[in-house]
Amino acid sequence: MAIVIVKSKYQVVIPSKLRARLGVNVGDVLEAGVEGGKITFTPKSLVDRGIAMSIEDFRRGRSYGPFNTAEEMVKSLHRNAKKLRASSKVRVAR
Questions:
Q1: What average pLDDT does the structure give for the chain?
Q2: For residue 49, what are the CA distances in angstroms to 11, 44, 56, 76?
Q3: Nearest alpha carbon to residue 74 among 87, 65, 62, 85
Q4: Is the pTM of this model over 0.70?
Q5: How many CA atoms lie within 13 A of 78 on its CB side?
Q6: How far apart (Å, rounded) are the C-alpha atoms in residues 16 and 22?
Q7: CA-to-CA distance for 18 and 24, rounded, in angstroms?
Q8: I want to staple 62 with a disulfide (CB 3.0 to 4.6 A). Which of 26, 57, 76, 90 is the partner?
Q9: How many whole angstroms separate alpha carbon 37 and alpha carbon 55?
Q10: Is 75's pLDDT higher than 90?
């Protein structure tokens, strides 16, 4: 068990053996918490909201590609645009 000292600005140094075991590096994000009277630090990853939405779209199959050429991508866009137009509802004139 490693012993650490709380510094004047309430900073603590995570011992190198513990950092190595957990794979914690400079710049990593840790979630601090209290469990059963003990302070816990849990490694977390932060993802930009836009990236998170893209990942969710990909998981749900709402993606196209990969494409080998730009022409393949353009053909795919046209093909899918036709499908969307065909399935869209007819607008009612006012």
A1: 87
A2: 30, 15, 10, 27
A3: 65
A4: no
A5: 6
A6: 10
A7: 8
A8: 57
A9: 37
A10: yes
Mean pLDDT, residues 2-7 taken together = 93
Output the six-digit token pair for 61: 């199959």
Instruction: Decide: 84 and 78 in contact? Cβ < 8 Å.
Output: no
- Top pLDDT among 85 and 32 is at 32
Three-class DSSP category at 35: strand
Q: How far apart are CA 30 and CA 41, in angstroms?
A: 6
- Please name the residue that has the structure tokens 């004047």: 8
The pLDDT of 51-59, averaged and rounded, is: 86
Supply 37's token pair: 């009277």
- With cut-offs at 50, 70 and 90, classify the pLDDT of residue 64: confident
- DSSP-derived letter for residue 61 is T
